[in-house]
Structures are given as C-alpha cells and as structure tokens.
Amino acid sequence: MDCYLGRIFIYRDTIDAYYFFNISNIEIQEDPDCQEFIKNMGNINLVEKKYFVLAGINEYRFQYFMLLENNNDIIYEWDTDTDEVKEFGTLFDFLKFYRQITICPITGEENNDFKELTTGRLL
Q: Per its UniProt entry, which superkingdom is the organism in (predicted)?
C-alpha cells in the first residue's frame, strides 16, 4: 500500500457555519468556474439538492460530497482539475478509503481516525 503524502480535510464540527447555509451552494451554482461540474452532474440545482462537501484531498483537488436531498448515503468524487464527477460509493466506503490513506505503513504509526469516525457522530 502506498503512503498518502497529500492533505485530506474531512468534516469537523468546528467547520464554519457558512457551509451549512444555502448561500454557499448559491455561490457555487452561479460560479462560472463550476458550470462544467454542474453540467457533468446533469445540470442539477445544488441548492435544491443540498450539496454538502464531506472531504477534500490535496487542497480540495478531489472533493467528496453528498446530495442530502437524495436521502441516501452515496458519496461522489469531483476531480476539480478535469471536472470529472463519479459516484465514489457509500459513506462507509469513503470511511474505509479514508482509513487506508491515513495510516502509513512506512512509519509504522497508527492512529484512531477510523475508529473515531465509525464510533462517533459523523453528521
């Protein structure tokens, strides 16, 4: 397994409340730089679908998000360099992936991120 060397940001309860209000989704919906992303999502309305970013990797080059209005636990991956969007899997699939990229076999260091994420309150 490769050791993940980039940075990953995952939802924290200390995140700015701005991201929980429609204003952030309105700004993304109207941002000219995000129109290809919206097109690749089927021209959805991010405000109506309640777009919610769960995590980002490498300064948000890859964003992992949910559409809360869908009432499921599907996570999507958005490559912001290419605007390619694909279904990543379930929330649990993402947590397993997160566990794999946050433990480095080179250093032998282990952490409790996965245990804490799966035993605590995530959303």
A: Bacteria
